[in-house]
Design brief:
The structure is a single chain. By secondary structure, the chain is of the alpha+beta class. It has one domain (about 5-40, about 55-255): Gcn5-related N-acetyltransferase (GNAT) (Aminopeptidase), CATH 3.40.630.30. It is built from 6 helices and 8 strands. The protein has helices spanning about 15-25, 60-65, 105-115, 130-135, 190-200, 215-225, and strands at about 5-10, 95-100, 145-150, 155-160, 170-180, 205-215, 230-240, 245-255. An 8-stranded mixed sheet has the order 1-2-3-4-5-6-8-7, with helices on both faces. Strand 5 (about 170-180), helix 5 (about 190-200) and strand 6 form a beta-alpha-beta unit.
């Protein structure tokens, strides 16, 4: 079943208005964003062995979204989304929907820019048309690929992928989010990430992981604001663009339960 969400914005939407809308919509069916390809911030003192929680175990994501505090996610129910001080207004209409075969060329353009020119991803081989088609085919039920469209053009996309092939990991996903370079800072990344998390919980996933190069601070901030917590740092495990990279591992538990 195809799922489409359209978010309309009035002309001349200012930064202050957008920040207020962001805080309001964390408890609605449409969400704001923070645009980039994931988060990566190294915690003081190195890696942590597990997510840190304060107080009693949090409720499910659906309960957190309906919290009267209008707060965030995963143990931050009392923390509003930070205002997007430097963000430009989003386009008049941003549509979230499932990726279609016709979107793959545009997805490839955005993805290959990061593969070839940045260390935001550890991928090094560009995705050609057959590779993109195979990637989409692997994302069946419960493993969404979501695109954000503005003016009929794909400007951001994201996906939930299996974390490991073993059956024991079937309810753990790994997310990826990419935003067109010229559209960053508009909240598109947060919009896509929140939609992925909503769909992941609906599909019965329990845990979502993000593995982010430690220099990718935009992605680290994005995931932290969505409720992810750093659970470890893999030291110098990726070599790209002439240097070694640490990879920060972040995690969000979609429900408040630790049992199966």
């Amino acid at each position: 079943m195809v799922s489409i969400r359209t978010i309309d914005f009035s002309d001349g939407l200012g930064r202050g208005t957008m920040a207020a809308w962001t805080r309001t919509c964390t408890s609605s069916s449409s969400w704001p964003a923070s645009g980039s390809t994931g988060p990566a911030r190294r915690p003081p003192g190195g890696a942590r062995s597990r997510p840190r929680r304060r107080g009693p175990a949090p409720a499910s994501r659906s309960a957190r979204r309906s919290s009267p505090s209008g707060g965030g996610f995963a143990g931050r129910v009392d923390a509003p989304c930070p205002p997007m001080a430097s963000a430009a207004p989003l386009a008049r209409a941003v549509t979230l929907r499932d990726a279609r075969p016709a979107d793959l060329d545009r997805i490839g353009e955005i993805w290959n820019h990061e593969i070839l020119r940045t260390d935001a991803t550890t991928d090094t081989a560009p995705r050609d048309a057959p590779a993109l088609a195979a990637w989409r085919a692997r994302h069946g039920a419960g493993w969404p690929i979501v695109v954000a469209c503005a003016g009929g053009d794909v400007v951001a996309f994201g996906a939930l992928s299996p974390y490991r092939p073993a059956p024991a990991f079937a309810r753990t996903a790994e997310d990826s989010v990419y935003v067109e370079p010229g559209r960053r800072g508009e909240g598109l990344g947060r919009l896509v990430l929140d939609e992925l998390l909503r769909r992941g919980e609906a599909a019965g996933h329990h845990s979502v992981l993000a593995r982010i190069t430690a220099r990718n601070t935009a992605s680290l901030r994005l995931h932290e604001r969505a409720g992810f917590r750093t659970v470890g740092v893999e030291r110098e495990v990726a070599f790209k663009l002439g240097r070694w990279h640490d990879v920060t591992v972040m995690q969000l538990l979609l429900g408040g339960r630790s049992d199966g």
